[in-house]
Amino acid sequence: MILTIKYFGQIAEITQKDEESLTFSGNLISELLDLLHSKYSGLKLKEFQVAQNQELVTLDTELSGAEIALLPPFAGG
Amino acid sequence: MRYNRHIILSEIGQEGQDRISKAKVLAIGAGGLGCPILQYLAAAGVGTLGIIDFDTVDLSNLQRQVLFGTASLGQNKALAAKERLADLNSDITINTYPEKLTHKNAIALFEQYDIIVDGSDNFETRYLVNDACVITNKPLVFGSIYKFEGQVSVFNYQNGPSYRCLFPNPPEQGAVPNCSEIGVLGVLPGIIGTMQANEVLKIILGIGQVLSGKLLCYNALTLQNHILKIQRSEEAIQSVLKDKANFHKKHVEPVNCALEPVSVSITDIKINENIQFVDVREAHEQPKVEGVSVIDIPLSELEDEYINIDPSKKAYVFCQAGIRSEHAVERLEELGITNCFSLIEGAAEINDYLNAQLEEKPVKS
């Protein structure tokens, strides 16, 4: 399936882009993350949550969505 | 007359304005977010405003902290904010707490207010505010910023999720830089803080849709908004509540923003003569890293050979896959070499990166 992956905050700095399209054949969110970790080694150091079709999901969730977002916490004020 | 433009709105009216004047709202921090939050809530006539901030006004704050002027420099922010807000609206009560929010004072303070608005600037305080809101059952209007991006949500509202349902635990110290380290667009906290003030007024008035169970992500450069749904996690809420009795005794070590993470990426370091690389692989392992000076100390010989590392320079330790280098850094720290970091990349990736860097440099003809 073709996925649109959106990156926020420090994650976008590591990937050097806000968004990209990927063709991916895996089944789980965790498999997609394995791929992204191998593509962007800096991700290993960062904490983030994953949303699928605008909804927060866990790593064992099945990939069903067209849009995935990687969301890090911010603390600035 | 002061509130005429509110009262003529059918959605607010005199009844709504009376609700605003009876409301009690506590702002955590009177900084980039706190200033616009407080300015609009005071102007709107929120009857009791609390401001807690231990910090003082610095010249570098004036780029975005719009309640302060040069006359406020050096003053406590809670007190300086009150001075401006009392002039803006003398009909309201403003309580100031020129001190640090702690586990010891949070519960008693939060109990005196209806709504808590978080404009703090560090994870330690944000988790403390969240947990104290869960324990005292107060709605938390959350906003935070990073460079050109902001996040807004309302937590702990009518059995909705809390901040821990989104991010269960704080990131490691030093993993996320703050505004003073990395910078922030001055108008961004103005936008995000104003959105927080808007959520506060919606909660007080009971109008519109409160941003509960959702996280709004705003990007000032693209003007894109994303609203993501968050589920309540009973596990996260209970983990806070079960600790209720001991909450006031908790002491969290102050976060030292200058702390660097022990693991770093080669792409984040500045390559110059003041750093050194340490290869902890065995002598036969390939490829060798070239183009920079490397000290070879196999992990098995670390204890005998570590004296070859110059303690006055930062040492970046690497291996084949980033695992042994982590162990080496732990051991080196025990041996008293504290200025050392483990590279997450292996030797092959480091070589690729260094080669690409060399190619990018213009060649003089």
Would you give an account of this structure?
The complex is a heterodimer of chains A (77) and B (365). Chain A has helices at residues 9-15, 29-39, and strands at 2-7, 19-23, 49-52, 55-57, 67-71. Chain A has 77 residues and is an alpha+beta fold. Chain A has a 5-stranded mixed β-sheet with strand order 2-1-5-3-4. In chain A, a hairpin with a 2-residue loop joins strand 3 (49-52) and strand 4. The longest helix of chain A is centred in the middle third of the chain and has 11 residues, at 29-39. In chain B, strand 4 (115-118), helix 6 and strand 5 (140-146) form a beta-alpha-beta unit. Chain B is elongated, with a radius of gyration of 25 Å. Chain B has 2 domains: 4-249, NAD(P)-binding Rossmann-like Domain (Rossmann fold), CATH 3.40.50.720; 263-360, Rhodanese-like domain (Oxidized Rhodanese, domain 1).
H/E element sequence of chain B: HHEHEHEHEHEEHHHEEHEEEHEHEH
Q: Using DSSP, what is the number of strands of chain A? A: 5
Q: Name the beta content range of chain B.
A: 15-25%
Report mean pLDDT of chain B, rounded to a whole number.
91
Q: How would you classify the quaternary structure? A: heterodimer
Number of discrete domains of chain B = 2
CATH topology (fold) name of chain A: Ubiquitin-like (UB roll)
Q: How would the global form of chain A be characterised? A: globular
Poorly predicted runs of 5 or more residues of chain B:
254-260
E-strand count of chain B: 13
Q: Into which percent range does the helicity of residues of chain A fall?
A: 10-25%
Cα radius of gyration of chain B in angstroms: 25 Å
Radius of gyration of chain A: 12 Å
Pfam family, one (chain A): ThiS
Protein name (chain A): MoaD/ThiS family protein
InterPro entries (chain A): Beta-grasp_dom_sf, Mopterin_synth/thiamin_S_b, ThiS/MoaD-like
Organism (chain A): Pseudotamlana haliotis
